Predict the 3D structure of the following.
Amino acid sequence: MKKIVKIIIALVALVVIAAGCVFYLTLPDTVSTEKAEKRNISLTISEIGVVEADDQVTYYAPVSGTIGTVNFAKNSSVSKNDVLADYDITSLEQEYNIASINTNYQEDGYKAANTENAKNTSKANTYAESDSSYKDLYTNASNESNSISNSVNNREQGIASTKTDLETNISKATTDMDIAKGDYETKQSKVTELETLITSADAELSASDTTISDIQTRLDTYKGQLEALDPASEEYGTLSAKIDAENTALTEAESEKSAIQSKKSTYETALQTAKTERDTAEAEVNTISNNLSSYQDQLSALPTEGMTDSESEKYNSLSTQIELINKEWSEVVEKKNTAEASIINQDQINQYEDAYLLAEAEEAQKLEMLEKGKKGVVAGVDGIIVERLVDDGAYVEEGTPLFVLQPESGYKVKVMVSRYDMDNVAIGNAAVVKIGGTEYSGKVSFVSPIAEEDSTGKPRAKVEITFDDNDVKPVIGIEAEVSIIADEKDSVLSVDSSSVYTDDGGDYVYIISGRKVDKKYITKGINGGGFTEVVEGLSESDKVITSAVSDENIGDKVSEE
């Protein structure tokens, strides 16, 4: 009996245990959930960047000369308008003074040439007017004398015939005199022209000698400097090249001088010929003048028996007048020719003017160089000297780099952004820059349109962030943590990013619907702060499962923790 009871008790126990198992297995699973709700979301891109500033500025020698004093050392801070280096302006002042003296000399020569030319031109014009007057007087007197002779000729044929011959000779001699004088003036002009060309050639030879002297002076200077240099140094090679260039210039200058001397010799030979021809023409004038005087003397000596007393008196008076007119006329012509020969032609006047203008331009250039030398090398911005390329007493050519300055302006942070984040970065995006333990606010000011390879060889786009506070001056080259706020949205429906999954159908979440697991596809917006914006697919009341579930759990009953 006891055995049966034990069996019954055992069976009851088994039934109770089985019922408990069935009850436990039918209980729903417990899951973690979070309601879909509206939040403020920021899309942030974080990168490590490097602090930079405006590009370095190189300061060059504004003028060739000797540096007197270098006022700042490498790594020194300088302010805008600080004089980085002073010139020793002694040589610049000497060059300017020499140029100024040369300008005054050339100006005096130019003005003197114009003054003398004006005086000689006035004289020549005055004598030319007198020449014309004497010619008219001579012609009138001759005509009147001829008239008396013709009147007497009607009375005495013989005397008239002789007189006619003399008058014919006088007329011809007068015409010949005009022609001979014209020929003489032409020959004299040729002589004057050649003398002017010789004078010009002398000026060119003088200029050529000056050029050769200047080249030789520079050669001597360079050679003296060369002896003090190490033949293996770069300066030795540079100076040797200058000496070669000056030797070439010297050869060319001497060749040019030889050509000028040859040209002058040609002019001198031509001048001798021209003078011979002029002297021949002058001798012809004198011969005709003597013949004319002889004819006039013969005419005056003719018997006057055939003339009336008044005719004889008038005739003799005219003859005297003609002789006096001819003498004074010849003197006027000689003075006119002398004055005309003293007139400088326009080409030579232009040469005087060109020499003056050239000297004036050189003086202005030397003054400009002196003014630049007085100012020295001036900093254009505040900054730090990162390279000093010159020492006290150094001679520098214009354009030689002397200092490299890192401006204390344009501070920014450069970061390299990957292709995954590029679409979210735009100029104007707010940013936070953390350097050490200090944070600074800033904005994206530049996005490069061209990718660059980073240290790993991957292409990235350069993005620059400028500080909102212009007084921020961090250490250039130091690393900085950068957070770019690419997008911000206020009060948008969002879920925990860990609850969002993706398959071939798109993005989705699991929710509790009627105490069972359900799957809903959604349209995502931005991500930020561990949350994902849901543009479409969920309502604010939906409970999103944040625990690990899968499609196998769809339809399972669940309960919230």
Observations:
- The radius of gyration is 57 Å.
- The longest strand covers residues 479-496.
- The helical segments are 2-25, 90-153, 157-227, 234-301, 309-342, 346-375, 419-422.
